[in-house]
Amino acid sequence: MLRFEWEWGTFPFAKTAEGDKLLAEFNQKLQQLRQNGQLKALAEKYFGSDKVLEDGKAE
Q1: How far apart, in whole angstroms, are the C-alpha atoms of residue 51 and residue 2?
Q2: The Cα angle at residue 39 between residues 59 and 7, in degrees rounded to 5
Q3: In angstroms, rounded to a whole number, what is the distance separating the alpha carbons of residues 52 and 15?
Q4: Does this model's pTM top 0.70?
């Protein structure tokens, strides 16, 4: 039986060279969204507040 656990602020990337590459690309795009204000706008639209960004510490 497979068991999956979710931890807030984590994303499932394989512990491989390809997974590391995908994680780096994901973090780069996430930083772009943060810098241009889109991440805040999405948080406010879907969660009603940008406070979720403070707790997630997705930097």
Answers
A1: 33
A2: 50
A3: 27
A4: no
CA distance 7 to 57: 12
**What confidence score (pLDDT) does residue 35 get?**
92
**Is the CB of residue 33 less than 8 Å from the CB of residue 42?**
yes
Structure tokens given for 14: 């394989």
Q: Each residue's pLDDT tens digit in the chain (59 positions)?
A: 555 555 556 667 888 899 889 989 988 998 999 899 998 898 889 888 887 667 554 44
Integer Cα distance of 6 and 18 in angstroms: 22
Q: Give the torsion through C-alpha atoms of 19, 24, 36, 33, to 10 deg.
A: 20
**CA–CA distance, 8 with 6 (Å, rounded to integer):** 6
